[in-house]
Amino acid sequence: MDAGLFTANNVWMMLATALVFFMHTGFAFLEIGLTRQKNTINILFKNIFIITGGLLLYYAWGFNMMYPGFEDGDAGIFGFAGFGIAAPENGMTPEYADGGYTWWTDFLFQGMFAATAATIVSGAVAERIKIGAFMIFTVVYVGLVYPIVGAWKWGGGFLDSWGFYDFAGSTLVHSVGGWAALVAVALLGSRIGKFGEDGKPKAIPGHSIPMATAGVLILWLGWFGFNGGSVLSADPELTSLVLVTTSLAAAAGGFGAFLLSTVLYKNLDLTMFLNGILGGLVGITAGADLMSPNEAVVIGFLAGLIIVGGVALVDKLKLDDPVGAIAVHLICGIWGTLAVGIFGAKAGGEQLLTQFYGVVIVGAFCVITSLIILGTLKAIMGLRVSKEEEIEGLDIHEHGMDAYPDFTND
Amino acid sequence: MDAGLFTANNVWMMLATALVFFMHTGFAFLEIGLTRQKNTINILFKNIFIITGGLLLYYAWGFNMMYPGFEDGDAGIFGFAGFGIAAPENGMTPEYADGGYTWWTDFLFQGMFAATAATIVSGAVAERIKIGAFMIFTVVYVGLVYPIVGAWKWGGGFLDSWGFYDFAGSTLVHSVGGWAALVAVALLGSRIGKFGEDGKPKAIPGHSIPMATAGVLILWLGWFGFNGGSVLSADPELTSLVLVTTSLAAAAGGFGAFLLSTVLYKNLDLTMFLNGILGGLVGITAGADLMSPNEAVVIGFLAGLIIVGGVALVDKLKLDDPVGAIAVHLICGIWGTLAVGIFGAKAGGEQLLTQFYGVVIVGAFCVITSLIILGTLKAIMGLRVSKEEEIEGLDIHEHGMDAYPDFTND
Amino acid sequence: MDAGLFTANNVWMMLATALVFFMHTGFAFLEIGLTRQKNTINILFKNIFIITGGLLLYYAWGFNMMYPGFEDGDAGIFGFAGFGIAAPENGMTPEYADGGYTWWTDFLFQGMFAATAATIVSGAVAERIKIGAFMIFTVVYVGLVYPIVGAWKWGGGFLDSWGFYDFAGSTLVHSVGGWAALVAVALLGSRIGKFGEDGKPKAIPGHSIPMATAGVLILWLGWFGFNGGSVLSADPELTSLVLVTTSLAAAAGGFGAFLLSTVLYKNLDLTMFLNGILGGLVGITAGADLMSPNEAVVIGFLAGLIIVGGVALVDKLKLDDPVGAIAVHLICGIWGTLAVGIFGAKAGGEQLLTQFYGVVIVGAFCVITSLIILGTLKAIMGLRVSKEEEIEGLDIHEHGMDAYPDFTND
């Protein structure tokens, strides 16, 4: 491979890495925007902890646990290539990874992905989880659960051998986060005031819809890198197809949720529009490189409808998910994974079944490990802050500060 | 063309696309920052509708209406290459577009442009337009007017045959939006309280200048892609020249507006500084690839002066444009288009005349079509919300929610 | 060099330029977030002035003062290649700069750096400096001091001949800004209320921690370009190593500050976490291309500890630095510069001594020039706003406007 192509590939992958990093700003904005002012510092603290801690964990051992060097046909379940990220021979030459990028780029791109799973959980458990418990959970989940599941497919493990397909992580990232969010929300219980005495859900509005909107736009932008970088080179045809399918699915997802929610609830609900965009993005992620533009629009549009139903279902189940993480990341993550068997280049009954098995196996593993981790933490230290703290806000109690201390209105 | 060059070109164009997409975040911040809190959700909703709807329209037929396949010398006025975006033969190889990018990249880059015209209108009509009327207007304007005008020049139509030059859209994007903004503002009338009984304009301050400032900085960043991507390849000399002229014009535009407004009004007006930057950016857009750095500074600086005059003129005409869209996008769009005949590689009397004809023809078409669309909507459903709704805010009336529902100050 | 490689290099450098430009948004958010609402417009105005003015100065003469064409072994101190930025012969071909980029890209990348030094000062002097004095200071410092110091190393001057190493500017950018911040803070005195009658520092909380957090994340993102672009080509191995060391140092810096501040002060201090990230970034900047990932973690972690001590030291010295600029940019800038002699490919006693000499010489020059400029301004026009203005806020007095004029809470 000539130096120009290798360099162009690596440039694309480094910028995709930067864009995935920027998604953490998007998540932070989205989460604080949709929650109350009194818990803003707490949520930001969690997000900053996740990015820094997640990257350090991935450097310490996560990368080598996710890519343990399974050989073709190994059907591996667990492997570990050692601590640290010493580069292999030829790790910086086109011989590594077919010239798609260097070893360093590989690490950093994957490292930026790693923290995402924990961030998804962060939004769902906001406004009531103990920060200490969440930090420990994050370390174990990002440090162990995420890379082990990742190794099954992207590391060349048994799901890969079976033919399971997940291009950029509808299952491996979004559902992995979404399952833990589901377990955590179930164990934590709902926020005070979320369900009335009649059991009916009450909206607890957030404190800045502009921030939430900016968060979604930044996440869409970040998805250019999340999906576009998952081509693992700058292949012109594939990368540009992926950007087209990703953006069309986002647009169609937003539109689907907007139309359905307008018909059902008779008001122009911006939050649903935004969640529809995210649902479309998560939905296309598993097969963004396999779909035609038309198929991407269909997958995205259906994801938008699913979001409206999903949010209602979560409410119905008396689960309290302040930011809609379960509907967006878990339900649309499952939808996107199955869609690979229904639409596009790999569509077919066998593929659909394999996708289904993948969803179930990953789901079972994530639910069980989440139950163990969070159950243990609940037994030892408790997951939930005191009633007083929840009412007065986590910012003052855990951080001794307010998010807008000098904001005045005179 | 070797694979390295083709790949590097396409990487640049994909990232330019991402940057143009990010401009929508900039527009959203700018518009809500300069308007009142009670209409924030409404503006964000419009912006999200424009991005998603605009992209879907461009996918459905806009792209094929803007690039209908006019042949050299056709002097075409209207053409249509069919629904959808099926790629042509060789659409993904260096044979397409001289290896500058793939067909998919082409579509997405142009698609991100398409929505911009409607966004420009959005700011000018803020705080009083009926959301339903605006959505219908957007669909027709982005779906029909924008691509038809675009075809005249970028699609190889009659303006192109005449030698009209508009590198990245001072006319084709900014004026197209600006003319519609002018018509809409004239038909809508001014916001309650904008003009006193003496006819003198009163400032109606926005609700977050920090957001407006961030919006302008994001727009400047996005212009790296807007102008830089309009080279349609990563040609090192041309792309880097374009970034230099673009940034120098932005800086000089800001400075021009800052100096003139300080002299005239004796206060350090941040909003005018910001609008000067935008004016410089719009002003350089038509000829960013033709100008020397010195010429870019002159064009930008004059655009900055024009902004100060333009804002005063709009007020004088009793037009109420909350964000200064007419001065920035229409007046500086015209200035930038004419500047191609005055400065730089194509300067000359004949070119100036051609530029003038282009401005007039596009202006006439946009004004007429806007009048038809908005006039029809006004007759059928009305353009303007009720007095009560305008006073209480569009957020509560149209969306049933508040932008900062949990923002407290205790 | 083939066209593909040249183009890929230039694409990387242009996008690095865009990322460095985006850092100004990060600085703006950080500074206003950590200061009081009543001075927000003033700070934003300063930032916008710095970006536009800085770029124009660098175009007018700064670039040619920083890169005056010293020959190898010249040991030059001052040179000037003339006004404007006319491109040299072959400035757009691979013959220029070993094909790493074009002359235009070179100018714009360096131009985006130039303004940074003044921005660092802006945060430290916030809430009490006269805007006129600050603008004049900025013009002289960015227009003369910064490029002269830059020429000593990056322009091939005497520090370069001595073997002084500063990859991306721990000294040449961050300390240059930091020294001026120190002098300015000392001359200005502390804000009213910062030190009690007992001499003990009192926290003056800012007005939006979410904005400050977003600012830090944007700065981290921008550092991908700041350090990654300082490779001056897209060399796959070097650029990707630099991104890895930069991100690991940022993460480790945040963690170090988080751990130490939690141990010392027993609360989870988000601001300290954020400043630790910035400290790690500044600390790795001088040697980002020389360090292994392990060394980057150590350097970053130590920078995080230094931040906690540095902030306490600045307080102890009764210096009032609202955003922590002295600890972050000056102290960690010195640390990063010295670290080149302690860790990594160039470690050694002689190198450490050279690094030390560089720190001292640059420091002496910056302190002396800052004293002259600011001392002169103090004598002629005064540096500090009136007591009344400081209490009522600079926004109303200097700009006649409020940052959130229509923000309501009913």
Give a short overview.
Three copies of one chain form a homotrimer. Chain A is mainly α and 410 residues long.
Describe this structure in words.
- Three copies of one chain form a homotrimer.
- In chain A, helix 1 runs parallel beside helix 3, helix 4 runs antiparallel to helix 12 (349-380) and helix 11 runs antiparallel to helix 12 (349-380).
- The model of chain A has no long low-confidence stretch (mean pLDDT 96).
- With 410 residues, chain A is mainly alpha-helical.
- Chain A is globular.
- Chain A has helices at residues 3-33, 40-66, 103-124, 131-153, 158-162, 170-188, 209-228, 236-265, 270-285, 293-316, 325-342, 349-380, 387-392, 394-399.
- Chain A is built from 14 helices and no strands.
- Chain A has one domain: Orthogonal Bundle (Ammonium transporter fold).
- Chains in contact: A-B, A-C, B-C.
